[in-house]
Amino acid sequence: MGKKTRNRASTADAGDNPRRPCPCGSGKRYKACHGAGDDVIVIRPFEGLAAEPDLVAMREFLPSATAALPVRSGGPVTLASVLPGASAAIVRDNGEVLLGMQVQTRSGDLSADLAGALAWARSAEPGSSLPVVGAGRHTGERLQDVLEPGTPLEPTVHADFAWWLPSESPDPEAQAMLERANSVIMPTEAVTADGVRGAYWVDTGSKAHVRWVRTEDETTLMAALARLSGQGGLELGEGSRYAGSFRAHGLLVPVWDVDREMHSSEWAGPAAEFAKRLDEAVAGLDATPLTESEHRARDVLAGKQITLR
C-alpha cells in the first residue's frame, strides 16, 4: 500500500484473496467490487475537505438528502444522496445541475468520479442525464480541486423523494418510481448542535440509531473511545447504548442504539456533551498513554464492527 498526498491502495494488493472486503470501503467483497479492474483505490477520497463527514454520510446512509455544493466557480450545483435511476448527474430542463452520490461505478476514486460528473454536467444539454461515471470520464480533477476546501456541506434531509420531480404533474412512470422510492425510505434527521457535524439519527423500523461520521485518525479515535469506555462515558446519554462502528471511505462511523420513543432532536444535547468528552480524551492521549485495562477495552471496541442494513 502506498501513500502520496492521499491514502491509496492498488487493487493488486487485495488480489491474493478475492473474498476479502474491498479496500475501497464499500463493504462488498473485493471480487464483486473492484476486483475486475486495475484501478487505484483511494481509501479516503474526500480527505482535506471540510465537507468530508457529510459527503461520506450522503454516500453511505442518508436516504434522501440534498445540499448546495460549494463549488469554486460556475453556476450552482446541488448534491443529492441519490437521483432517479441512481444517475450520476442530471441537468434539468431549466439548467439546474444535480450530482448523485449513491451511484454505480467501477472507479476507485469517488472524488474524481464526482468531479468528472460535474464536468459532464457543465457542458450537457438541459434534460440530459449521466447514468454511470467512472475512470473514462475523469478529467484529472478531483473534488478537492473544484470545491472550497474550508466550506462544509449543509445537507437538507428530506422525508421523501418529492424533490425528484420538479413538475407538479409528473407522468405515470415517474410517479410510480417516486412511490416505490418513498415506500422504502427510513426516517432520518440530522443531529444538530455546537461541535456536532456528520451525526444522523435514523429509525430502521425495529430500532433507532445515531450514526456519527468522525474525521479523526482511526487509531486515535479508537484509543479515545476506549478511554471513555473505562470512564463510563461511552454512551450518548440515558436511553442509548454504544453498538459498534463501521468503516466508510477511510473514516470510522460509531453507532449508538437509542430509544425510539425519544425525538431525534433530544439527542442534540447529549451529542454535544459527548463531543466535548471525546475531544478531551483525544487531547489527553499524548500526555497519558492508555492503561492496560484501556488497551483491553480498545480491543473489545475494535471487535464491534457492524454492518448497515
TrEMBL record:
Source species of the chain: Pseudonocardia alni (Amycolata alni)
Sequence intervals crossing the membrane: none
Domain of life per record: Bacteria
SUPFAM superfamilies according to UniProt: Sec-C motif
Coiled-coil region(s): none
UniProt region (Disordered), positions on chain: 1-23
Domain spans labelled DUF5926: 45-309
InterPro entries linked: DUF5926, SEC_C_motif
Secretion signal, residue range per the UniProt entry: none
Gene3D superfamilies tied to this protein: 3.10.450.50
Protein name: SEC-C motif-containing protein
